[in-house]
Design brief:
By secondary structure, the protein is mostly helical. The protein has six helices and three strands; from the N terminus they run αααβααββα. The protein has a three-stranded antiparallel beta sheet. The longest helix has about 50 residues. The relative contact order is 0.09.
Length: about 170
C-alpha cells in the first residue's frame, strides 16, 4: 500500500463523497435540494411559464422576478422564498440580477449548475403529478387497513375481560 500525503488523502476523500455518511457534505446538499420550496423554485425558474396553462415545464427557461416567483409558488411566505433564493444563490444554482430602475428590478435565473439539477427536479415533479392518484389510492387503502387492524386489536383485547372490565381467568 502506497503512503499518501495529507493533501492526497483529503483529495481522495473529496472524490469519494458518500451521502450515507453523517459528515459527508453531499448529505447537506441533498437535504437542501430535497426541500419542497427549493424543488418548486428550481422547477419554476427552469420553465417558460407555460405550465400555468397546463403545459409541460420543458419550455425555454427565462429569468423571473421575485414577484413572479411569489405568485407561481402558492403558499410560500416572503421569508421562505427569500431564504430559499439566497441558499440557491449561495450554492451557485441561481444568479440574482439587480437592475437599477424605479422601482429596482430583481430577477433570478438558473446557472449552468442549476440547469443540470433542473432536469432532475422537473422529472421528480412530473412523476409526482403523474402518480398522485395512485399514491392517494394507496394511502386510502393503507389507512382503511390500518383502521381495521386497530379495531380488530381492540376487539381481541376486549375478549379477555369480563363485563366489569376485569381480566378473564386463563384456562
Amino acid at each position: 500500500m502506497a503512503t499518501r500525503t495529507a493533501a492526497q488523502q483529503r483529495a481522495r476523500a473529496k472524490a469519494e463523497y458518500d451521502a450515507f455518511l453523517t459528515q459527508c457534505p453531499s448529505r447537506q446538499l441533498l437535504d437542501r435540494i430535497a426541500d419542497k420550496w427549493v424543488t418548486l423554485v428550481l422547477a419554476a425558474l427552469g420553465s417558460d411559464g407555460s405550465h400555468r396553462f397546463g403545459a409541460d415545464c420543458a419550455g425555454e427557461p427565462r429569468p423571473l422576478r421575485y414577484s413572479e416567483l411569489s405568485r407561481l409558488l402558492a403558499g410560500v411566505s416572503q421569508k421562505m422564498l427569500t431564504q430559499t433564493l439566497r441558499s440557491l444563490e449561495r450554492d451557485g444554482l441561481v444568479t440574482r440580477t439587480v437592475t437599477p430602475t424605479v422601482p429596482v428590478t430583481v430577477t433570478y435565473e438558473l446557472t449552468d449548475l442549476g440547469h443540470s439539477l433542473h432536469r432532475t427536479v422537473r422529472g421528480l415533479k412530473g412523476w409526482a403529478e403523474a402518480h398522485m392518484d395512485d399514491v392517494l389510492a394507496n394511502r386510502a387503502a393503507y389507512d382503511g387497513h390500518a383502521a381495521g387492524a386497530t379495531d380488530a386489536a381492540g376487539a381481541d383485547a376486549g375478549a379477555d375481560t369480563d363485563a366489569a372490565g376485569a381480566a378473564a381467568p386463563s384456562r
